[in-house]
Amino acid sequence: MKFSTVLTLCLMLSGLAIHANATRVMLHVTSNSQQPGQDVPAPLNNKDVVTLVKAGLTADIIVAKIKASRTNFDTSATALQELKVAEVPDAVILAMVQAPTGTAANTSAESTAVTNSGDPKATVYVYRKKNFNTRNMQPSVYLDGEEVARMDDGKFFAIKLEPGKHRLEVNKGHSGAEIDMKAGEQYYFRIDIKPGFWKGRGEVLYMQKEQGSLEIQKMNPLEDKWIKDKSKVTVDSQTIKRG
56 and 125: one domain? Predict the structure, then answer.
């Protein structure tokens, strides 16, 4: 009788020990499964970038941080202007615009806002950055085969167009781009001068809205003497909106 009682107690204690070990294992697994979620950092945003700039970090370091991080940047035209005011370097702003996460959503939202503005036409901005070495060259700009302007150094102009396909060229037939343009949307074309054996030649580059609107912010309108078709080209600040 005593033997059976002892045996029963041993079995009960053994069962309790197994249950306790199983409970510890379950708790350990649960704890480990929650840990990764706790360690994932929040996506890098505009405020984080401004903080890094104010801390004195170089542009190269900040760009490397952007490329190595999850991001959720606001790259609307207004946000880009705020970054410039905060003295964020252009190289960092460009990395933010090119970051894969967040950019597409912001751009889509901004495009929707522009489309809903009610403007029945597309707006095309053509501009050229300042370059001392090529300042005396003014390549001809053609729209749908017709010369509309000569592109002066450090200037910009705008054209309002009906929706549909339009072709912009420089030095007719040398370099150009054809875009199917939508009502209420904005398109940016930058004219660059590429060095040649005897002289440089113009080249048309189609720019993303975020970069194009940023680059023309401090540019002056094209002078009247370089405008060839005043029925299309406008430099009136009341008529056009830079971004």
Answer: no
